[in-house]
Amino acid sequence: MEKDIKFFTNGKRIDGRAIDELRNIKIEVGVFKRADGSSYIEWGGNKIYCAVYGPREAYPRFLQKSDRAILKCRYNMASFAVEERKRPGPSRRGVEIGKVTQGALEPALLLENFPKCMVEVNIEVIQADAGTRCAGITAASVALANAGIPMKELVPACAAGKVDDKIVLDLCKEEDNYGQADLPLALLPRRNEFSLLQMDGDLSEEQLEEALDLGRKGCLEVYEIQKEALKKKYVKEDVSNE
Amino acid sequence: MEFLVKDRSIVTPGMAIAKGPFRYEYGVDKFEDTIISSVLGIVYIENDGVKVVPLEGKYMPKRGDDVIGTVVSINPLSWDLDINAPYLANLHVQDALRYVKDTSNLERIFKVGDVIYANIRDVGESSDIVLQSKERPYGKMKWGRVVKIHATRVPRVIGKKGSMIKLLKQMTKCEITVGQNGNIWIKGERQMEDIVERAIFKIDKEAHIPGLTDRIKKMLETELSR
Amino acid sequence: MSSVLSDIKKEYMISLLKNGKREDGRGLNDMRDLKIELGVANKAEGSCFVQLGETKVIAGVKCEVGAPFPDTPNQGVFTTNAELIPMASPDFEAGPPREDSIELARIVDRGIRESGAIDFQKLVIKEGELVRVLFVDIHIMDYNGNLFDAAGIAAIGALYNTKMPVLDEEGKKTEELMQLPMKKIPVPCTYAKIADSILYDPSMEEESVMDSRITATTEDNGRIAAMQKGDVGSFKKEEILDIVRRSKVRGDEVRSLLKEKFSEMR
Questions:
Q1: Which of A230, A238, B111, C1 is deepest in the core (most CB within 10 A)?
Q2: Residues of A with CB under 8 A from a CB of C
């Protein structure tokens, strides 16, 4: 996997960032009319839309739970979102990301208010550039808030990783492809617990601890961006009407 | 006790609102000794209580509410209505009209697409919504139009002691029926209906900005003088 | 379930139409606001975002190299695919494409293919062996009526936006980039028939009460490249000819907007 790449120049990374620096993140809220809640995120070179439907009665009926709503998450990548055209339709990778996304978001939601219902999260990647699952979870949490779904807290996500034996925040494409480890994380900020955890590569115990701490710091920065995006949506509307 | 945000500010889910022994109502949750918002909404601090009125979301049905819904399907002895809630509401034929002679063809009473003004008789434990439309003014709506807004903004459409709805009715001479679920029925002269519709959408959008009644009054005056 | 339109609204729409008016204030011949943005997805060789009223679609082009079809050894291969993803409507479901998305893709495909928008012969690298294989994938993001026109405009926009590597004789990519050999700008115009009124660019509410629809795709020179009558219902000859005449005028307007965007791009 490793390639002869110079990951650091004068302490800066390939794209000029510091070790603990996020890529640029921009979130827009309420971008679709049809959905109950929606968002758009640009995170580095990632462009991702998210739409939330619900709560509405779950179907097929056997999926219904008598004490709470179920959460369905669908992650899909447009065929033109990557260099090599992806075959349209579900992929094993997409199905797995949908599942871990659900696992990351559900602990933050107050689904017991809606027995027999479902809440559907649709994540659509239009342009992929490393870290789509974290960007997708971040956008989905904002879209869920925009849909008015009650929740304990928002869920920010961000990856940490290892390149050139150094722990870095928010891997870019080259670091993701040719680095030594990738650790995508989602954080429940109030409880200070992680609700997404995946890892591939090679980390020592000490490096893992360092990466978790750095990832947590990144998630907290993402959390601020989520809050600002949600507030801006309504404050902006104030101004345009006066 | 200590407030961590200003009255009427916008809060996001998970934001700390207050610390200490508060009476907390809808839209908030408790985490350790802190009251946090559980929705995206506006904080209202009243005496010893604190609540967050959601900016978004579906209608949460309550017993006794008057609602306006659309028939979406017909069962052997009842109709299912869409009332903007997470669940469909059920109207049984016995609760629909005072006298029903023939229940063999419910479509002759209400058909899919009909708009019904009804009262929520009960909300069951598993969220079954039971309607009734026996007495006036309940029943099928004819003509006019229905506009849909957020259910949480309905109190602003009605206004303090009904001031806003009175203003709208007086100035436009329209009949207006407000469903607690955010569906509002308007009937009058077509241009007047247009004006009421625009005013209601403005209330929906600007409900959280102070000085609403004055702004709506001004808007109506400008539009009516055209 | 959620898509039942109330009778009150239907009656209201039909009574307005009798006076030549529409619920959203448009005249029978008016299009909703049209926004076109090129180059929105840079992993695609070409891409285009179209917003038609509140309907939003994104089209992306991917270029590959492969064998031609045996019956057309001297032509490139072109495939159009549309996805009505669950993001766009509470009534769309995940899974393999169904009738509606296949019909949509084929209407868009036919307009582009039959108008001769692309010079397929220039897509040949080695006759009978190696040709360019083009994929246009259309993603419906927010469905609020008239996907045909939005998707057709997005597809042609994405094709004109395409920049792909120049290939050597073996089909290997070089550093140099080139545009697709485009010749024409086909534009689909969709008309709905509701209670004997014919109206352009139906909204979602109008689609739910329409008896039938016709999509006519015109070319730059006013010729008709493709047509499709959809849904249950029928049209008189005069109505069909009227639709075609109106499509030319409206098509030209959309074409000039597209041309403006294409010239900004260069």
A1: A230
A2: 32-35, 45, 47, 49-51, 53, 56, 74, 76, 78-83, 85, 88-90, 120, 122, 124, 126-129
Provide mean pLDDT across the span B143-149: 93
Indicate if the pLDDT at residue B136 is higher than 50: yes
- Flag if A35 and C47 touch (Cβ within 8 Å): no
User: Which residue range is the domain that position C48 belongs to?
Assistant: 10-265
**Would residue B61 count as lying in a domain?**
no
Q: Are C155 and C161 in contact (CB under 8 A)?
A: no
Identify whether residues B136 and B76 lie together within a single domain. Answer: yes
| A1 band by pLDDT with thresholds 50, 70 and 90 | very low
Q: Is residue C1 part of a domain?
A: no
Q: Which two tokens stand for residue C184?
A: 């024409």
Name the residue of chain A whose CA is nearest to B82's CA: A56
Domain containing B177: what range? 145-224
Of A80, A88, A122, Cβ closest to residue C87: A122
Rounded to the nearest integer, the mean pLDDT of chain C is: 94
Residues B178 and B123 in one domain: no
Q: Name the band, by pLDDT with cuts 50, 70 and 90, for residue C159.
A: very high
Q: What's the gap in Å between the CA of A83 and the closest CA on chain C? A: 5
| Domains delineated in chain A | 8-241 (3.30.230.70)
User: Would strands C130-142 and C77-84 be described as parallel, antiparallel, or unpaired?
Assistant: parallel
What is the crossing angle of helices B212-224 and B163-172, to 10°? 0
Model confidence at C249, pLDDT cuts 50, 70, 90, reads very high
Residue with tokens 């640009």: A42
- Average pLDDT of chain A is 94
Contact (CB<8Å) C141/A45 = no
Same-domain status, B44 and B10: yes
Q: Give the pLDDT band (50/70/90) at residue C181.
A: very high
Quick one: average pLDDT of A75-84?
Answer: 96
Name the nearest CA neighbour of A40 among A149, A152, A142.
A142
Using an 8 Å CB-CB cutoff, list chain A residues near B83. Answer: none
Structure tokens belonging to residue C14: 């039909």
Question: Is the model's pLDDT at B7 over the cut of 70?
Answer: yes
Residues in B closer than 8 angstroms to C2, CB to CB, are 72, 82
Looking at the domain assignment, is residue C127 inside a domain? yes
What distance in Å separates the CA atoms of residue A145 and residue A43, rounded to the nearest whole number?
19
Number of domains in chain B: 3
Q: Which residues contact C19 (CB under 8 A, 6 or more apart)?
A: none
Of residues B12, B31, B206, nearest to A230 (C-beta): B12
**How many structural domains comprise chain C?**
1
The pairing of strands A70-77 and A117-127 is parallel
